[in-house]
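Table S2 (text version). Query chain:
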Amino acid sequence: MYQPLADKIRPQSLDDVVGQRGLLKKGGILRRIIDSGQIPNMIFYGPSGIGKTTVASIIARQTRRTLYRLNATTASIQDIRAVVDELDTFLAPNGALVYLDEIQYFNKKQQQSLLECIESGKITLIASTTENPYFYVYGAVLSRCTVFEFLPVEPDELCRAVERAFRLALEGRDVSVEDGVVPAISGHCGGDVRKALNAVELLTGGAADGGTVTLEDAKAVSQRSNMRFDRDGDGHYDILSAFHKSIRGSDPDAAVHYLARLLEGGDMMSAARRLLVIAAEDVGLAYPQVMPIVKACVDAAFQLGMPEARLPLAEAALLLATAPKSNSAAVAIEGALADLRGGNVGDVPAGLRDAHYQGAAKLGRGRTYQFPHDYPNHWVAQQYLPDALRGRAYYAYGTNKNEQAAKNYWEKVKNK
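Corresponding structure-token output:
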């Protein structure tokens, strides 16, 4: 029967697991918990192919518990209850460890149905998810589990697994491996051990006796595999967040890097929307002309379509990254909204109220209003905020040249 190479060389002990050194090294928090034998309910969070299932299997074997593997895409609560029914029988003499893969696919009712089983201690639950558990796992379950984050495996660590896979796959065969193949595979799989081992299996399976596994072939089977992008997943929002923060931090190189990742992932819409937001939120009044420029770049991108759209979008990203920054407009509107939401509103002053109707004057509407254009420099001192907010300052001039010029002008006009 065919057995994938990734299963053949699956680690049998924690010391053999590549990556996750922070959790599994001697003295690491998860390692200490496993060695104690007192296994709590846990959630393993991280991308696929980095050892979550492997570690769960090792825990079951090391604690002499029967391991039940379920996948939330196909399993039901009846499957969990079937496990409970087998407890205290010869099938699970030391208790059961249930590994529930992709728990995010269980709905709220299904997840809450787990509580009865894990609270009674009848089973130990290890759930895994590729999505952020704080968004996708319901609070009642989350509060009863300890979350451990598994990270993509670094290329240096991954080389060990790739070398071992080549040794096993080519044992007894007359096939050589060209220099650079191992690091090429390790560096192009995005930290995914399973992807790396699948690449080894493809390369060795397609190599004839007396032949060579070439660097060119290695690059061909692992090309673009280091891209992790899911429009509905955490990776999508992480990249968008990094894109925005890189531009806000005035790093043009990081800005085009994350833009490229968004475009390669086919998400031009999110990139374009974020550029428009940044123009208002982070550049703002330091360079107010940037908004129509970015809008023109975005419009051009959608008219052109990919791949040409990358050019105006890159221009917009680089312009925003290298532009002076000011969030004074964002701070001002958030301050005003905070007062409104806190009930600090007040009535519109009578002089500012609409006076364009018969009888307005009798109600005192607009009587005290002074028309600024009738005064020098088109300004006259009068109260505009409600009495309850008189003297409130939401806007503070930024330190950039643009806003400082406006500040100096108005200080001169207002004789401050």
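Notes on Table S2: Strands lie at 42-45, 66-71, 96-101, 123-129, 146-149, 176-177, 212-213. The chain has a mean pLDDT of 86.
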